[in-house]
Structures are given as structure tokens and as C-alpha cells.
Specification:
about 170 residues; single chain; about 35% helix; 2 helices; 8 strands; alpha+beta
């Protein structure tokens, strides 16, 4: 192979520094565009997850009330649902389940105090609706956990963008 053939081989292998820099700039621009949307998606996921966790807790408390033939309370930690909650037997305080504080999610109940189930699984307190939302992004829909008079929970999504009026 002559000297001219060797130089052609060296020039065609790999990328130039200019090509690499342009690629890095394009990736940086795309990342800066995608990052805010990704953050919003993560916060929306936290709201959905918190609503599912609360829904599961209500199902657990209701089924335990029926199974144990005893009253069961869901007690907000420090009187604040966003601070977590505990499921316990009303008569002796036996803790059945606990949930840690929620991150970046606010919970508003329609009434203060515990959510209590009678031994037949019906709700015996005024807490019947909990709205879960975030103040970080106005575009993220609130989720509501409703408990009907029979004690059956359901999760609804806010349709009007106003978490203050629940999920109407």
C-alpha cells in the first residue's frame, strides 16, 4: 500500500471533533426541552400513586373491619393526611398498616379527624372524600378518593382543573 492509500484510510475512520461537538450540542438542546416535561410527569405519577395507596388503605380497613368484626380507624399522622396514615383497630390500638408521608402531594379531606369503619364495613365518620393534588403544576389533574355510605371506595379524576371543589 502506498502513502496516498494509507492517508485515505486514516481520514475515513472515526468522527471528527466538530461532528462530536455538534452531536453533543443537539443532545443538550433536546435534553433541556424534555427535562421540564419529565418532571411534570413524575409529579403526576406521585399524585396517581398516592391516590392508589389511599384507595388500597381504605379497602384494607373496610375488609379488616368485616373480617375482625371490629371497628377500624384510619388515622392521619399528626392530623394531616399528607403526613401519612395508620390503620388500627379502634378498641385496642393494634396497628395493621402504616403509610409514610407523601412527597409533593397535598391531601384535603372533606372533614377533619379519622376515617372509621364499623364492624359491618360501613363508614361511621363524616370523612367521605379526600382530594389529592399538587401545587407545583396547575396542569396536573387532582385525584379524589370517595367513600360511599356502604364503605366502598372509588377513585375519580378532576375534570375541571379546580382541586378545591373536588372531582366534579
Amino acid at each position: 500500500m502506498d502513502a496516498r492509500g494509507a492517508s485515505v484510510l486514516l481520514r475515513t475512520s472515526g468522527f471528527t471533533i466538530i461532528e462530536l461537538m455538534i452531536t453533543i450540542v443537539i443532545l443538550a438542546v433536546l435534553s433541556s426541552i424534555a427535562a421540564p416535561a419529565f418532571r411534570e410527569m413524575m409529579v403526576a405519577s406521585r399524585v396517581r400513586s398516592a391516590a392508589s395507596d389511599l384507595y388500597e388503605t381504605v379497602l384494607l380497613a373496610r375488609s379488616e373491619a368485616i373480617k375482625r368484626n371490629a371497628a377500624i380507624d384510619i388515622v392521619p399522622s399528626g392530623g394531616n393526611w399528607a403526613g401519612g396514615w395508620t390503620v388500627q383497630v379502634t378498641s385496642d390500638g393494634t396497628v395493621l398498616s402504616t403509610h409514610e408521608a407523601l412527597d409533593a402531594v397535598t391531601v384535603t379531606a372533606n372533614s377533619s379527624g379519622n376515617l372509621s369503619f364499623r364492624l359491618d364495613g360501613r363508614v361511621s365518620t363524616n370523612v367521605r372524600q379526600m382530594v389529592l393534588y399538587t401545587g407545583e403544576y396547575a396542569t396536573i389533574q387532582a385525584r379524589c378518593v370517595y367513600i360511599d355510605a356502604a364503605g366502598r371506595p372509588s377513585v375519580r379524576t378532576d375534570k375541571d382543573g379546580n382541586a378545591a371543589n373536588g372531582c366534579v
